[in-house]
Structure formats: C-alpha cells, structure tokens
Amino acid sequence: MVKSMTGYSRLRREEAGFALSVGVKATNHRFLDVQVRVPAELEPLEGVLRGIIKDRITRGHVEVTVSLERTGPSELEIDQGLLEAYAAACRKLAREYGFSAPDPVALLRIPGILAAGNGEVPVAEMNRIREVLEGVTVETLEQLNEMRAREGGALERDLRNRLGRLQELASDVAKLSDRVTPLYQGRLESRLRDMLTSVEVDPARLAQEVAYLASHSDITEELTRFRSHLDQAARLLEESSEVGKKLDFLLQEMNREANTVLSKTTDVPEVGLEIARQAIEMKAEIEKLREQAQNIE
Fold first, then answer.
1. Which tens digit of pLDDT belongs to each residue from 189-232?
2. Whole-angstrom Cα distance, residue 130 to residue 132?
3. pTM for the structure as a whole
4. CA distance 284 to 268
5. What is the number of H-type helices and E-type strands within the chain?
6. What pLDDT, on the 0 to 100 scale, is given for residue 79?
7. Which residues contact 21 (CB under 8 A, 6 or more apart)?
8. pLDDT grade for 120, boundaries at 50, 70 and 90
9. Does residue 12 register a pLDDT over 90?
10. How far apart are CA 110 and CA 254, in angstroms?
11. What are phi and psi of 57, to 5 degrees?
12. Nearest by Cα to 174 from 218, 230, 209, 233
C-alpha cells in the first residue's frame, strides 16, 4: 500500500475544565523528522506524543502543534511578599507624609502582584489531560493517514502506468537487440566481398568476427536485470512500510542499467538509433518515477 508523505489534519476536544487542540502537518523528508510544539505545562507529555507518532508514521517531516485552553474558572495567586512590601511602603508614606491609606485595587494592579497559578498542573488533572491528549493525537494521525492514503492511491496508479511503460520499452529493446548479430554478419560479409572479390571467405572465421563484434554491444544481461528490477518494484507497491526508500534504490539500479544499454548502443544503423531512442525514453520514465518516489512514505 502506497502512502503519500504530505498531509494535514487537526482536531479539537473539549472536556470539563479544558479544551485540547492537536494539529499535524506532514511534508517530504528522507527520514522521519518529528517536531513537537506543546505548552510549557504539557512538556512532560512530549515523549508520549513522539512515541505515538513513531508508531504510525515511518518517514517524512512531521510537525505537531498542541494547544491547551482552560475553560473553567481559574484561581488567582497573590505574591504575598511583594504585596506586603508595597503595603509597608504605603504605610510609611502615610505616617511620614500624611498620605491616605493605599487602595487595595490599586495595589492589585501592580505588575507581579497577581498570577494565574504557578504554571504547574496538578497530578490528577495532568493524568486527565494525558488521556485526552493521547486519544486526540491518535485520531488526528488516523485522519492524516487517511488523507495520505488517498493521495498515495493516485501516486500508485501513476507509478504502475510508468512501470508498465518501462516493461514495454524493455521488450521492444530486446526485440531490436535480437537483430544485431544477423545484421552484423550481413554487413561484414558485404564489406569483405567488396574488399576481397577473388578470395573465398571462411564461414567459421566470419562467425568468430561477428560474435566478437556482437559481444561488445550485447545487452542481454542488462535487460534481464532491468526486468528483474521492474518485477521487484511492482511487488514493492504491495508492501506497507518504507516503500519510497526501497523504490528509490531500485530506480537507481534501473537507471544504471539504462545507462549501460545506451552506452552499448550498436552502430548498426538499422537498429542502433531506435535502441538509443528507446533507452533515452527509459531514462526519462525512470526520472519521473524517482520524482514520484520522493513523495512516498
């Protein structure tokens, strides 16, 4: 099963006293690269999130953003020491200069006097948040993978079409290569007759020369390996893990075989130009496949 590496999903869950939002964005990457952004009070849960992600995604750059909103009433904490210092200063001013007593509301407006808690989450509430966060993260990743699977289906269809085209090209090149030896023999015989009109040509010696020339342009082994790689690539598309990396390796090998076929292109004009043309088309199809493989998990 082929999955795309790109996708986006976001879910929000509201519970008594708080609401959690989890957003996941996935893009292409050679390996699994996970970035997690969580509020400071939820940093102890970052390891849990990374474990959930690694169980469900094997490749790609994954950005996870978690937000926590308090929906219930919150308690304000007073910095007693700072408040007492300000109050003592006000009392001193009242004694020495006759100022009126300090206004409590004015004191509370002084920066640093009030704080919305100390940023720590009680153990019982943290356990509740963790349970909800795990569930929301799993659902978000499931939605992400559904989107990636849909895109992967379209990629797989394109990959199979291109692999089929490569099979056709390999078969056509094989048929053309079968004509090389007889064409060499005919051309060599014709040249020898022109050069040695009164000398009889030894058939055995002629066969040796033809075999020698044909061996330098024989591409049977290259085509055999090329077809083997095509079969492996087709089977690989049925797998469910790290298809992209394995496919990219096979395509590199296929490109190497296509280069060899092109370098061995015979100078027999009846087939040489057509083999070269089809080998170039093979390389073009392989390059398109490699571009698609960069988008596959």
1. 676 666 656 566 666 766 666 566 666 667 888 999 999 999 99
2. 5
3. 0.68
4. 24
5. 9, 6
6. 80
7. 10, 11, 12, 13, 65, 66, 67, 69
8. low
9. yes
10. 72
11. -135, 135
12. 218
Q: Which residues of 198-215 are buried (b: 16+ CB within 10 A; e: fewer)?
A: eeeeeeeeeeeebeebbe
Q: What is the structure's pLDDT at 159?
A: 95
- C-alpha of 148 from chain center: 11
pLDDT attached to residue 177: 84
Domains detected in the chain: 7-73+122-147 (3.30.230), 77-115 (no CATH), 149-293 (1.20.140)
Residues 6+ apart with CB under 8 A from 33: 60, 61, 62
Q: How far apart are CA 84 and CA 38, in angstroms?
A: 36
* Main-chain dihedrals φ then ψ at residue 123, nearest 5 degrees: -60, -45
